[in-house]
Records
---
Amino acid sequence: MVLRIVVGLGLTAVALAVAGHRLWWLKRLALSGQPAPDRIEAARAHLGRDLETQATEVIGQRKLLQWSVPGAAHAATFWGFIVLLLTIIEAYGDLFSRTFAIPGIGHWPAIGFIEDLFAVGVLAGIITFTVIRLRNNPHKEGRRSRFFGSHTGAAWVVLGMIFLVIATLLLYRGAQINTGVFPYAHGAFASEIVGHWLHPLGYGVNSVLEVVFILAQIGVIMAFAVIVVYSKHLHIALAPVNILFSRRPNALGALEPMRSNGKVLDFEEADPDTDVFGLGKIEDFTWKGLLDMATCTECGRCQSQCPAWATGKPLSPKQVILDLRDHAFAKAPYLLAASDEEREKLPEAVKQEAERPLVGKDGGVIDPDVIWSCTNCGACVEECPVDIEHIDHIDGMRRYQVLIESAFPVEAAGMLKNLENKGDPWGMGQARRADWMTELDFEVPVADGKIDPDVEYLFWVGCAGALEDRARKTTKAIATLLHTAGVSFAVLGPAETCTGDPARRIGNEFVFSMLAQQNIETLNEAAPKTIVASCPHCFNTISREYPQLGGNYEVIHHTQLLARLVEQGKLTPTERIEEKLTYHDPCFLGRHNRVFTPPREILEAVPGVKAEEMHRCKERGFCCGAGGARMWMEERIGKRINTERIEEALALDPDTISTACPYCLVMLGDAVNEKKAKGEAKETVEVVDVAQLLARSVTPAVAPAESGPGTAEG
Ligand code: SF4
Ligand code: SF4
């Protein structure tokens, strides 16, 4: 008895000391990052909501269960381990008394049954994981496997450890049944089966096996605890913490404002010596960023949904997080050293790691092509079961490259210059913003200063909507529909300027804040009741990002307003459009802002239209390739993203591909034209905004002119 107590508790003490030391080291490493007081305040302020989030995300496994088979396997394993905490208590109790039972409930047959049920559930879970891993073997499947780039060896070790936890559990319980000390008279069906197998060995052998497997159970669990904190399975401990401090409702929509030393950076007061301008080294990440890295489970769900990865680019959101984590761990001794003298004494390899640029072609932690491949589509953030904030990290690195290193794709320089000097990415100038109105046969009121309180909507046209030939057709369709519905609206005309979205997404926070402040001033003066934006990027920037600068407005997307007008009977689509159609979800409308239904409602209301969904739609929609300022960069690596998307659309043999974003309109339009030129798409296929379709059905007699004099090229 004494020996087993000494061995059991000795193993536990050693394992807890090793694991505790590692957790302490991880905490010190995380705290070597930038402060993030906003995360602590938000977690405190929304404790009730956060508990609910923990309940759905961690206990409920919400995101994991969206992937039905692996999700169910993970849930079975996770819930199993929670229930099996009871068996761990029993194992420790058995060290002190062979007849130990948990006080109060320890003899209930239902508890014995539940413990065994979840033990079997965990076994089923790990068998499923084994099959999934064998079928998704990265050595055979290459980039198509979501485990490509993950540390698969460690994953197999952990699966083996979980098996040993369950095996030793059932073995000691089976032996206990045969020695007559098992606390449950019946109900523990799996233990009874194992007991039946061990029964022929007799009482003496079973007595020995009982002790051996109780100690083995404790030993395996303690070894598992150590492996967990030294491997990707650290997420078992960190996932709830990471989710607690993640952005709410998620890290989609707005980008994080640029922070330095825990405060939002004010460019006018910034000090180049003490302030941090984006992410230029690993310690520029906040502790939450470092926590993200340590929490990654390497599941590859983000990678499997990334359009850049799917089209052969070097960007995998998972690999970005893993490369940052590996670098943070390798540089840790340098970061945690107490003095320069201590740093000097570090091994050469650590010093070299500390010298590595975070982003750089030769020896950088992250290749520049990786960060510039991101479209900010949000698929990674949407999928990540532990709420890692990939876009903020990628765009944070872009900020440093643009603001400090002036290193970004050269072709985007013109766009930034045009934004600064002319207020639009094409450099066409403010005056041209009114051109589209001259192509209508009714007058569009242009606000001059404060908007009349009787005017219901300020129509925010956007640069593309005003200046790009194809997008201008959408603008005219929206204006015509509003006019037909008798909705009072005004536009800013030449007083509108770019929202700053392309500047912010490429990393030029300085130009973004300049444009945003200018627009906020104009909007505050105009004081619109509601802004209706036709571009999802404008919609996202004004509604989600301007509040960071003090601009708070009610903003809706044109599809939301048009769907409402159809529902209210103010717009009645009557003309039949006998077409087969598919709808492409713009990332910044759908995934980032959850507007999935209104565009579909509009299409449903048009008589004759037969809509069919693409395989990748709604939350899992596939990007057109233009977001994240990619519209202004060449796509030199891999397959073009818009080509990949249009192929998916064309596979449905549609007459029309509809969307609700000027960027998507241009990207998909270009891709379909290429396909037509190659004879791979029928000549009649067209890409249109849902507003154009609705206008054709509602007001065929007054449909807006479909062409205009100016074409801006992206
Ligand atoms: S935002 Fe989109 S393109 Fe960028 S890493 Fe995530 S999934 Fe890939
Ligand atoms: S970042 Fe999230 S989704 Fe991607 S591999 Fe890590 S845990 Fe999985």
---
Amino acid sequence: MDLNLTQDELAFRDELRVWLEANVPKDWDEWRDESLESRFDYLRRWQRKLYDGGWAGISWPKDYGGRGASLMQQVIFWQEMARAGAPPMANVLGLGLVGPTLIAFGTDAQKKRYLEKILSAEEIWCQGFSEPNAGSDLASLRSDAKLDGGHYIVNGQKVWNSYGWAADWCELVVRTDAAAPKHKGLTVLLVDMKSPGVEVRPLRQMTGETEFNELFFRDVRVPVENIVGKVNHGWDVAIGTLMHERGTFGAGLQVTYKRTIDRLIELSRTVERNKRPAAQDPLIRQKLAQCYAEIEIMRLNQMRAFSRISATGIPGPEGSILKIFWSELNQRMQQMAQEMLGPFGQLTGSNGHAIDKGMWSYGYLRSRGNTIEAGTSEIQRNIIGHFVLGLPKSY
Ligand SMILES: Cc1cc2nc3c(=O)[nH]c(=O)nc-3n(C[C@H](O)[C@H](O)[C@H](O)COP(=O)(O)OP(=O)(O)OC[C@H]3O[C@@H](n4cnc5c(N)ncnc54)[C@H](O)[C@@H]3O)c2cc1C
């Protein structure tokens, strides 16, 4: 692929750069101490501003509120967000998973109804896939939906549901044919989280936050027009969503990682190690440079994946390579931060001595989940082994 930007791409980049310089809020770091809900509201307002400026959904169709630009311009967008030190957007799963799934599998009516409100953050989305006995082996899920006139009646339980507490809508996978082989009888439904019978119960993580939840569905009525794709063919739709989660979703993470490494490099000049600035410690210098290089590798790999998706429209199994890379890279970077910052790095926000209001202890603890969410590293390696390298199945 050609990594040089075309004239159009350069014009796009320059226009965006000017807009970001004028509009990126400067106080996001000061919000670290605030509650999960307040921080979410802040990011929601920021996303709304991007949307009003015409910068949400760069590669989404114009008819549905997007900019209709190329995937490469989408990549430039994330790079410029990182360069400007911009906060991330609020509707993470709507933008990264549900929107692309609806663009690929949804009806025109569904695209009209949902896409623009995802971009404006007017409606927040969550993903109801995992169950207590169905994570890596998602197809063994048991939540079911039975047809009753113009509605499906949904019963079951989901778990580890990120943003469930904030969500207006859920992309839910349910079993609609119990007699069919396990991959065949599944259907994807769009469920209004305010429907009677939906209960959201927070789960407390080791970070202390309740970022994700258990969801309970008791006789929840979902209109048949909320089916995505075909009845009993939900596996194809769910895999489409997961391919985006593993393939394109990580693009936005580069913004966060770049901010993290820039801040670590800055801190290395003042934090002491063996009575001199950490930046003068050969081991720390090696590790900082290694992380910096890996973030650049992540960016280039993403560009390669995006250019391949431009040709086919759908991410392929090689998205698993990106997923392993970003998740394990963040764990290495957070581990390195702890080594460099020493015990002060472990203090939390409420303690006056904590560095950066405790973001390093939070970052370290939160990174442990990276190699589990969106499919564990073992599952990604199985996918790469089987679908990319053509090796026999592991089971
Ligand atoms: C931070 C976070 C956010 C999440 N958000 C969501 C969300 O929004 N929506 C949602 O639906 N889910 C979400 N999840 C759930 C996530 O998708 C599952 O946790 C994940 O798929 C693993 O499933 P499990 O927890 O049931 O583990 P299991 O599937 O029980 O796996 C247990 C262990 O066995 C290993 N293993 C299992 N099968 C194999 C195999 N065939 N070969 C080799 N090793 C294997 C796994 O790698 C793992 O180490 C989230 C998880 C986390 C940590």
---
Amino acid sequence: MTKLGDNLKINSERLWGAINETAKFGGTPKGGVRRLTLGPEDKQVRDWFRKACEAAGLEVKVDALGSMFALRRGRDMSKAPIGIGSHLDTQPTGGKFDGILGVLGALEVVRTLNDAGIETDAPICIANWTNEEGSRFAPAMMASAAYVGDFTTDDILSRKDIAGVTVGEALDSIGYRGDVAVGTQKFSGFVELHIEQGPILEAEGKTIGVVDSGQGVLWFDGKITGFESHAGSTPMPLRKDALGTLSEIVLATERVVTEIGALGTIGEAVIANPSRNVIPGEIAFTMDLRSADAGKLDAIEKGVREAITAIAAKRKVEVAFDKVWHKPPTHFNKDFVNAVESAAEELGYSHRRITSGAGHDACNLNNIMPTAMVFIPSKDGISHNELESSTQDDCAAGANVLMHTVLALAGVSSK
Ligand SMILES: [Zn+2]
């Protein structure tokens, strides 16, 4: 906690007003938001955000992938700024909080510091990362991934949406291909405020989630090759049923992940040439395995592979099972996590440590700088849905924790 104590609070009405005002850019009849990255509604919210930042005295820069950086000067400009922010794009039927709270909460922090005449030692920089959601262009979180060096800028610029429009063309069409090279805006660390997108905080009646880790992810593409044959004339022992095989794989996966305490999902399964009186001969499927513990991630992959081998042998079918993505678990920086926890504690909010179930730009940034996240409760744990909701009080609490975390990290000298 800073010397300012817990007296300094953000303006809850102003934050709530900004959330509702920007929700009109892509607003849906059901009260959600459809704001696909780099589309016309994204341009509208970006223009709004740029104007609001400039009105707050910030210098706004845009990088070659359209990520926006708004700098508030500090006393010591030789220090790299503390970064705060998130993303303003949404899912096709998204809500008005996912990502948006993190950017507008950061703006509210700056507005509050301006009102109170507080100068920090290190500068503060608000970031709006391009395409966190990944629904128009893959991969998700592409701009922060390029920022940390996982992809080249040219690679990302060439990615296409379903209509064949590249990221580069989309940036040009809304005027947000910036002149700052990706990665040149430096940070000494980053803090992202976000809704939980899960049920834990609400169920436990806690206001603040102190995020200390993010789950690792394994993605697989699978293909079962059995044999198509007549449903009426093929005796049961002679069948090579691809769907029967997949059913056993689904149940075995549930068993393995439940025993080890992880998560496993078969989210796609497509029968080739489906027909009511043909035994399925070929099925393509996907698998998503998650844990915040690298050891558990290894263990569930091993357990699932062993189960698949045994099931395939018993049923005399072929199963191809290829790993297509491996993201190791994220462990956020201890000092930053402690700073979030101290701010929540001293502001008097109930809190708990929590693992992020979803991926976030902060998980990428943590690869190259100290990073932490602040969560607030999501109503009924719902997100990526127009019904996504959080209360005004919880949004304000999250922004207050963000502000006091940033003050502790950026430093405030007594005059
Ligand atoms: Zn998000």
